[in-house]
Design goal:
It contains 16 helices and 25 strands. The protein is an alpha+beta fold. Strands 7-8-9-10-17-14-13-12 form an eight-stranded antiparallel sheet, covered by helices on one side. The protein has a five-stranded antiparallel sheet with strand order 6-5-11-16-15, with no helix packed on it. Strands 1-2-3-4 form a four-stranded antiparallel sheet, with no helix packed on it. Helix 8 packs antiparallel against helix 9 (416-437) and helix 10 runs parallel beside helix 12 (527-535). It is globular and about 85 Å long.
C-alpha cells in the first residue's frame, strides 16, 4: 500500500448523542464507550436469543469481555464515572486499534489512564485490552479486569474461577429464551508492581473479575493486560471449555505477538484499498472508512455471515435484530469478491448450510425449489420477520440476490469444486423456484404480486428488479449447469427469454413495474437502475442509458433513504452527467456519514432528522463500495478470463481521474485494477 488509510479525527470532547466506537473482527463485535472499562456492549457471531420485545429469534448480547475498573483509595471509577474526563479517543483504521486517554479525580489523587483495545483478526475469538495508569501522588490502587454479563438478558449456566493454570476464570452464559449458549475465558497480567495482591471474585453469580491491589507511586506506570476468548455454541458445544483452550493458546503467543499479527493481517487487507484518484481527500477518507467497517464486520471464521449492521449494536435501536437479509448479498458481498474472497465464501456458506430451510419456506408458500427468507434467523436460516411478516410474503427477490451471489463468487474465484458442491444446489433450487413462481400469459411469462426494492404496502406485477434478477439467475443457472456437468431445467431457457421486463415503449426506459408512476408510493425509488447494476444485466445501450438518466433525474425524491442512495452517483455517472454524479454521491452517501469515527448510518440525518442514527449500516457502505468498484469502473466478473471483465466504459464523477486498487483477487490470482477517466474499459493486470 503506497499510503496509509485515512483514520478519523481523534475525539477530545464527547457529546451525549455520539455512538460509541464499533470494534469488530467479524466474529466478535464491541461497542467501546468513552470510558472503555464501563458499560461496553458485545455481540457474537452465531449467538442468538429471543428478542425481548419482538419475541422472534435475534442476535443476543454476550457478556462484555473487556470490562474493568480503577479503584483509588476505595473510590471506584465505575461508581463515579462523572469524575472521569476524556482527554482523547483515537481510532486507527490501519490496524483496528482504539486508544483512549482519560483522567479520573478520586479526591485523594488524580489517575491518568490510557486504554488500548482491539479485536484480533488472526485469533478471531480473542479480544485484547491494555490499561496503563499513572497517579500524581502515592495512593492505594486496585486495577480490575472483568468479563461482565450484568444487565443483559439471559443467565448463568456455569462459572469457574481459575479452572486451569494460567486462566483467571471462565463462564457459560445462555441467551434470553435459552436458544444458545456462549462461553468466555480470560487471563490477565500486571506489570509495574511486583508486590500486588491478586484476587478473584468467588461468588457463583458474581461477574468474572481479577483485581490487582498495590501501593502506587507518583509518576510510575502500571500496566494491566487482558486477553479474553468469547465463543458461541455455533462453533463448539462446550463453548466455555473451548474458550479456555483458545485463550490459553493466545496467551502462549503473548499480547505483543497477537497485536503485531493483527497489524500484519490488516496490512494485507489494506492492499485492496480502493483509491479514488483525483477525488478530494475527504472522499478518500470516506472510502477508507467504508472499506474499514465492511472488512471489520466479516471474517472467514464467522458461522453466521453478517448483518445489516455487521456485529454492531447499541440499545437505542433494534438493529434489525441481527437478521441476515438480502442487502448482504446485494451490497456487501460484491466488494468482498474482489478484496476478501474467503470472507465472501463464509457468507455464502451460511446460505448453503441453510438450504433445507429455504426449501421448506418455498413449500409452505406452495412453490418448488428454494425461497430464502426475507429476514433469516441465525441458527437455522428460517424466516424471523417480526409482527405479521408482510414483507416475507412479497419480498421475493432475496432468493435471486442469493443465487446471483453464488454465481458471482464462482466467476470471480474460478473455484469449480465449490461450484459443484455448494453453488449448484442453491442456484438449481432457486431456478426451480422461479419456474414454479412465474405465470405464463399472452405477454410471455410474468411474476405477479411482488415487492421490489421499494418496501411498501401494495404489491405490484412484474417488478423490474425481481424479473431482471430472475432472468439473470436462470441464465446463470444454465451456465453453471454446463460448468459442473449437470442438466439444467428444460423450461429455464424459454422462461429467461420470454420473462417480461417492463420497458416504456416511448422513452425506452425500464419502468419499476407494470403501470409505475412517479406519484405512486415510493415511486422515485430507482429499482430499475439498481437491477441493471446489481445483476449486471445487459438491456441494450439505448435502454440502459435511458434508464440511468431517468433514475438519476428523479433521484431527488428518493435520496436520503437507505440501500440505493449510495448507488445514485454511479447511475448519474453512467448516464454521462458527471456534475450530477458528484451531487448525488454527496447527498446519497457523504451525508450519511456522521461523527465520530466516520460511521455510515441507515438514513440521511439531513433528510430524516427524526430517525435514530444507527450504524455502521452495511448496506449503505457496501453500496458505496459496490458503486465505486463496479458501477464506475464498468467491470463485471464473467465466465471469461479476467481481462474480459471490463464490459462498459469507465464513468467517473466530475474531478475524479480514476479508481485504482493495488491488489484485487481474480480467479485466485492477484491483479491490479486500473480504471481511468475516458478509458473504454477498466483493466485487471495480473501481478
Amino acid at each position: 500500500m503506497s499510503t496509509p488509510p485515512l483514520s478519523p479525527r481523534p475525539v477530545r470532547r464527547w457529546q451525549p448523542h455520539f455512538l460509541p466506537a464499533y470494534l469488530s473482527n467479524g466474529v466478535i463485535g464491541l461497542r467501546v464507550p468513552r470510558i472503555p472499562l464501563v458499560d461496553g456492549v458485545s455481540i457474537l457471531s452465531g449467538f442468538a436469543g429471543v428478542h425481548p420485545l419482538d419475541r422472534v429469534e435475534s442476535f443476543a448480547r454476550a457478556p462484555y469481555p473487556l470490562a474493568g475498573d480503577v479503584v483509588v483509595d476505595d473510590v471506584r471509577l465505575s461508581q463515579l464515572p462523572e469524575r472521569a474526563v476524556l482527554d482523547e479517543q483515537a481510532y486507527d483504521f490501519s490496524c483496528g486499534e482504539l486508544r483512549t486517554r482519560f483522567h479520573f479525580d478520586a479526591g485523594t489523587a488524580r489517575v491518568d489512564v490510557e486504554v488500548l483495545t482491539l479485536c484480533s483478526r488472526t485469533q478471531p475469538t480473542v479480544v485484547l485490552q491494555e490499561t496503563t495508569v499513572t497517579v500524581d501522588r502515592a495512593c492505594d490502587v486496585t486495577l480490575e479486569a472483568a468479563v461482565e454479563p450484568a444487565g443483559i438478558p439471559g443467565g448463568w449456566v456455569a462459572r469457574d474461577v481459575g479452572p486451569v493454570a494460567g486462566i483467571d476464570g471462565s463462564l457459560r452464559w445462555h441467551s434470553h429464551g435459552g436458544l444458545c449458549t456462549c462461553g468466555a475465558a480470560y487471563t490477565t497480567e500486571l506489570a509495574g508492581a511486583t508486590d500486588a495482591d491478586r484476587s478473584t471474585a468467588a461468588g457463583e453469580l458474581e461477574h468474572l473479575v481479577t483485581g490487582y491491589a498495590f501501593r502506587a507511586r507518583a509518576g510510575r506506570r502500571y500496566r494491566l493486560r487482558q486477553l479474553t476468548s468469547l465463543v458461541a455454541d455455533a462453533l463448539h458445544h462446550e463453548p466455555d471449555r473451548q474458550a479456555i483452550r483458545l485463550v490459553y493458546a493466545a496467551s502462549e503467543l503473548g499480547f505483543d505477538t497477537l497485536r503485531a499479527d493483527n497489524r500484519r493481517a490488516w496490512d494485507d487487507i489494506w492492499r485492496s484499498r480502493i483509491q479514488l484518484v483525483g477525488a478530494p481527500r475527504r472522499w478518500q477518507a470516506l472510502a477508507d472508512a467504508a472499506f474499514f467497517y465492511l472488512h471489520s464486520s466479516v471474517h472467514p471464521s464467522s458461522p453466521t455471515s453478517t448483518s445489516l449492521f455487521g456485529l454492531s449494536y447499541w440499545p437505542n435501536y433494534h438493529y434489525y435484530r441481527g437478521h441476515v437479509m438480502w442487502d448482504i448479498e446485494a451490497f456487501a458481498l460484491p466488494p468482498l469478491l474482489l478484496t476478501y474472497p474467503p470472507a465472501a465464501r463464509a457468507m455464502l456458506d451460511f446460505r448453503a448450510d441453510r438450504l433445507d430451510a429455504a426449501r421448506f419456506n418455498a413449500a409452505m408458500f406452495g412453490y418448488r425449489g428454494a425461497q430464502f427468507p426475507w429476514e433469516s434467523s441465525l441458527r437455522r436460516g428460517e424466516e424471523a420477520a417480526p409482527d405479521e411478516g408482510s414483507a416475507a410474503g412479497r419480498e421475493h427477490h432475496v432468493s435471486l440476490d442469493v443465487a446471483h451471489a453464488f454465481v458471482q463468487y464462482v466467476r470471480a474465484t474460478g473455484d469449480v469444486e465449490y461450484a459443484r458442491r455448494r453453488a449448484w444446489p442453491v442456484v438449481q433450487a432457486v431456478a426451480d423456484w422461479i419456474e414454479s413462481r412465474v405465470v405464463e400469459s399472452a405477454r410471455g411469462f410474468e411474476i405477479r404480486r411482488v415487492t421490489g426494492v421499494a418496501e411498501k404496502e401494495r404489491p405490484e406485477n412484474n417488478s423490474a428488479f425481481v424479473n431482471i434478477g430472475a432472468i439473470t439467475v436462470l441464465r446463470e443457472a444454465i451456465e453453471l449447469a454446463e460448468l459442473v456437468g449437470a442438466v439444467p431445467g428444460a423450461a429455464w431457457p424459454r422462461i429467461a427469454r420470454r420473462l417480461t421486463v417492463p420497458v416504456d415503449r416511448r422513452t425506452r426506459r425500464i419502468r419499476n413495474y407494470d403501470g409505475h408512476r412517479r406519484t405512486d408510493e415510493k415511486g422515485d425509488t430507482p429499482d430499475a437502475a439498481a437491477a441493471l447494476l446489481c445483476f449486471g444485466y445487459d438491456a441494450g445501450a439505448d435502454v440502459e442509458l435511458a434508464t440511468y438518466r431517468d433514475n438519476a433525474a428523479r433521484a431527488d425524491g428518493y435520496v436520503g433513504s437507505p440501500m440505493l442512495s449510495p448507488l445514485l452517483g454511479a447511475f448519474a455517472a453512467r448516464a454521462g452527467d458527471q456534475a450530477r454524479a458528484v451531487e448525488l454521491f454527496e447527498r446519497g452517501y457523504a451525508e450519511f456519514v456522521i461523527e465520530p469515527y466516520a460511521v455510515t448510518v441507515e438514513y440521511s440525518p439531513i433528510v430524516f432528522p427524526e430517525r435514530t442514527p444507527a450504524g455502521p449500516f452495511t448496506a449503505n457502505l457496501g453500496g458505496f463500495l459496490t458503486a465505486c468498484l463496479y458501477g464506475l469502473t464498468g467491470i463485471q466478473p464473467g465466465p471469461g478470463d479476467p481481462d474480459s471483465w471490463g464490459v462498459r466504459p469507465v464513468a467517473l464523477p466530475k474531478g475524479w481521474r480514476g479508481i485504482e486498487v493495488e491488489r484485487v483477487w481474480a480467479r485466485g490470482s492477484e491483479a491490479r485494477l486500473v480504471a481511468r477517466r475516458g478509458a473504454e474499459r477498466a483493466t485487471l493486470e495480473l501481478l
